[in-house]
Amino acid sequence: MKKRELVLIAAIAAIAIMPVSSSYAAEKESFGTKVKNFWRNLLSYPARVTEESASVLVDTAKSGVSVVTNEIKRVAEVTTGDVAKTKELITEPIAGTAETTVKAAEGVVNIPFEAAKEKAEPQATESE
């Protein structure tokens, strides 16, 4: 009788330990993944800063070109006789330049934050 009880207790203990051990292994893998992701993010941070800087530069250049283009249009309108557009000829470049400057400053301030964001990588699918 004692032998049966001992075998039954051993079987119950083995069944109880199995989920705990797999949970521990999953936790260990999670830590390893975290470490790997930390180093990957640390080493790729300069590249992402450069990417974000280029993006801000492109957006600022587009905005600056837009301001210049609008100014040329206003000059053409005023010189062809639309004197009512004279006010816009003076105020639009100032407002456009200020708006471009603000957007550029916001972009530059956000570069470190945007570069530090972890990019989600697509998970590899298992093929059978």
The main β sheet shows up as: none
Mean pLDDT over the residues? 80
User: Number of helix segments?
Assistant: 2
What is Rg?
32 Å
Are there runs of 5+ residues with pLDDT below 50, and where? none
Which secondary-structure class do the elements indicate? mainly alpha
The coarse overall form would be rod-shaped
Helix and strand element order: HH
Strand content: under 5%
Counting DSSP E segments of at least 2 residues, the number of strands comes to 0
Distance between the termini: 48 Å
The count of domains is 1
Tell me the helix content.
Answer: over 70%
What's the quick description here?
The protein is mainly alpha-helical and 128 residues long. Helices cover 85% and strands 0% of the residues.
Description:
It is a single chain. This protein has 128 residues and is mainly alpha-helical. 85% of the residues lie in helices and 0% in strands. α1 (2-79) packs antiparallel against α2. It contains two helices and no strands. The longest helix has 78 residues, at 2-79.
